[in-house]
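Hi,

I'm pasting everything inline rather than attaching a file, because the server keeps stripping attachments. The sequence lines come first, and each chain or strand is labelled.
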Amino acid sequence: MAKVKIGPSTHLYPKPAVLVGALVDGRANFMTASWCGIACEKPPAMSLALRKIRHTLKGINQQGTFSINLPSVALAPQVDYCGIHSGKDTDKSAVFQVFYGLLQTAPLVQECPLNFECRLLHSLDLGSHMLVVGQIMETHVDQGCLADGKPDVEKIDPLTYASGTSQYHRLGEAVGQAYGIGKLL
Amino acid sequence: MAKVKIGPSTHLYPKPAVLVGALVDGRANFMTASWCGIACEKPPAMSLALRKIRHTLKGINQQGTFSINLPSVALAPQVDYCGIHSGKDTDKSAVFQVFYGLLQTAPLVQECPLNFECRLLHSLDLGSHMLVVGQIMETHVDQGCLADGKPDVEKIDPLTYASGTSQYHRLGEAVGQAYGIGKLL
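And the predicted assembly:
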């Protein structure tokens, strides 16, 4: 099929739709983000790109900690709400039931089936955004979303975000086993 | 629901299943990766975590360029093949039809509906992995996968990878409009 050049773009798919938790000026705040991924295995680390003006970035720098919370599809309206409203103007501390874990300063969302506690390791200034790297210190999973001791993606029913059409999507069905279907070639 | 602590883990969902292209010792090589995300808007940048021993990392450092290619679900066997076999032992230069764009040294996969050309900006040593940040210099899209000049995720039908169950999944249906459904709260 013929290719079209559209210039530099950021339309990578799929992207997770997560809630970033931080204590900002002592108050729990949750920001919607999709520019987030795994950065290292040993130690386990997460990367997160944040526009420099973000209220959440202020809290991450204040405490040196943050959380990444994975919502299921049912939480899509709340996730979108946290993407529309900034913690500068809106108190989002009561949108979710908040709990704290190992780090004590990284607010976690009870309603999200999967939660990561992160300790700030690096901040890389890339231009409009800071790329924040956090060491994953603890993972919390809803008991019913585990399979063989690991978080099961089908039970979690995670929310994804597609930037081109600005739509949230659910994850679809399994299409093959990794380290398996490639052996047939 | 009761939460269970499983220790530090890297089971973030969803993750894209992409092919990283690089010229290694002058030969096009393609590696499967899912620890990849957008890192900045201005300039547009991509982050990619690579185990330090990866053949692909050698090529990225040799040329200072790489590509990120988004396969559709139909390419799942080829993607898995590129995850099973290392370019150290296997010549993967003929698995796909290769083309080159602006950067001339970042091999691109014709069969993938979406391709990004990246120029190496930063390498951050995190332990087992290097976090590589590349400026996105050009995006190539299959003509039939565009909608309003942007890559349309439903037409692309991207492949995703779930680490817990080691399954590839397709993206599911849209569940709501971003900057929309949160206004109802």
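Chain A has one domain: 15-179.

If the labels don't parse on your end, tell me and I'll reformat.
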